[in-house]
From TrEMBL:
This is Transcriptional regulator with XRE-family HTH domain. Residues 37-86 form the HTH cro/C1-type domain. PROSITE patterns: HTH_CROC1. It comes from the Bacteria.
Amino acid sequence: MNAQELLDKIKQLPNKPVDVPTAPPVELVAMVVRWGRHLKQWKATTLADFACVSLSTVERVERGDKVSDEALDRIAQALGYERGAFTTPRLPIGPEMAAEQMIETYGHLEPVAVAPMKTHKAIRDAAKCQAYLIHRPEVPDTYDADIANLGEWLDLGSFILSDMIEDSTPSERGRRDLYNDVLACVAELERRGLTVLSGVMAAPQPGLPDWKVAIVSVTPRLTDPGAPKRRHVLVDRRCVALPATVMAAA
């Protein structure tokens, strides 16, 4: 059963009594698990390994077949949800509302091409963007200072390479030194067990058609071992939209 078939089936579910708590329908769980796995760009085997369940169990869940509550709880936790997210009875919201919530959650996502942040070109492309977004799911607070340091280096690189600077642009050697300093910061994050990916997202705003945002993904290798081979991340377009007050000022 593909994603569209699951969504159609969710819409066709009969309405349940609104005052009787029930567990989420298996079709909705299947859609959430499938999307959650794809957002992480995990193979089904990777999810099975992290959830400590069999591959066939993951496949059955994604088909909308029934499995044990224990297996669903393990899969929920592997995807970052709380235990019971797929099994705890709750007041039903109806199939139409469930479909709307799925669209609200996933309908604003846009794929952005990324690669390991290990080259001068990657740093240069990020520094030439008008803004940057650092995404760090499941990264412990102990890395806050290191990630903030990376952000400061990107700020500095953007400032130095900005066309708005009236002084002469830095020499080629000066640019290389800047790129190497940023790469040294990235290397330190990777030495401490993180994967750093970057890409550029075209995010045109009203009156700013050339607005671009550097997307920097930072994830722990321990919980996201497939990240170094990732070629795309999904970014919520609303996260790169400028506030209305800024747009008014622009």
